[in-house]
Amino acid sequence: MSGGVSVGRVLGIAAAKRARLFCYLLxxxxxxxxxxxxxxxxxxxxxxxxxxxxxxxxxVGFLKMHKCASSTVQNILFRYGEAHDLNFVLPSxxxxxxxxxxxxxxxxxxxxxxxxxxxxxxxxxxxxxxxVQALLGPAATFISIVRDPVDLFxxxxxxARWDQLFKMSLYRFARAVSLNTTRSxxxxxxxxxxxxxxxxxxxxxxxxxxxxxxxxxxxxxxxIEQEFDLVMVAEDxxxxxxxxxxxxxxxxxxxxxxxxxxxFPQYKQPLDEQTRALLRDWLWADQMLYQHFKRLFHRRxxxxxxxxxxxxxxxxxKLNHAAREMCGVSETNFDNANADFRPSNxxxxxxxxxxxxxxxxxxxxxxxxxxxxxxxxxxxxxxx
Length: 384
What we know:
The chain is of the alpha/beta class. The protein is 51% helix and 7% strand. The strands form three sheets. It has a five-stranded parallel β-sheet with strand order 2-4-1-6-7, sandwiched between helices. Helix 1 (2-42) crosses helix 12, helix 6 crosses helix 10 and helix 8 packs parallel to helix 11.
């Protein structure tokens, strides 16, 4: 009897995998049909071109950077990985693998799915290249994303409500920390996994004490360039996703996404140039990091080809428009969103969509999606 139950369970899981992949491919097909019909009506072509022959990468390490459009990229990785039955490195609860200390494999030693093997790392962590590579293997592809440090800090300050924590506006904060560079020590440990000061270098794993040394910052930037196959730029997200498609050898259709964890416009603080300059000076180490990888990113865009990039970006925009049409996307807020789609706080947009599986997953919140993937891996581990 137990053998029969086991076989039934295996067949059920196999059927579920086929159903997920079918839904994923169905949505891609519907999007392509929609785009083709629109192109015929408008007299245009799809402009996408063909990707060169390559093998889709199934071992991917993504450093999910704070406030850099990384939740959108994470959602893309989650949907592709789930549709292709890939396994995720996940914490036993919540959405962090280490907040104050670099990632170590011991942090996931006791998870129920520890014996299934891993394909994709895409959750918040303090980066540790050696440990992540040991999990995914030497052939893994490593990616991350950066953003203008001042804009990142403004987003973090507002999102985390630091005006309440520090009892001052961002305008006053910029002037307080500029008076004495060592004042930054007063604002480092603020909880929720944030460093605040040079947040990107913190996420990349540079110890706080080293972020005051130009030599050590330069060395860290060189190490990141050596370790990562692609560092995207949040301000140029469409081009970033085109290059991600090429880097992973995933179809451009796989890059379709909704902007996840994005604030409503009224909660964004415009900054005067003096405030920006003060924050830029205070965040000089992250500024070095950003400028370096922004230059490399523009070089990658140039190598991809200006015309080819323009056509691919146009095609991606058509695909995204088609997905919104197919999914019936409408924006909502924290109070009115369905529990599975509820954003992280009331400053952030949520979505309502129709019943297609991939539409639901595009709109799903990070915590909800991680819970689903975690539960599926628990079930998968039972059959290993």
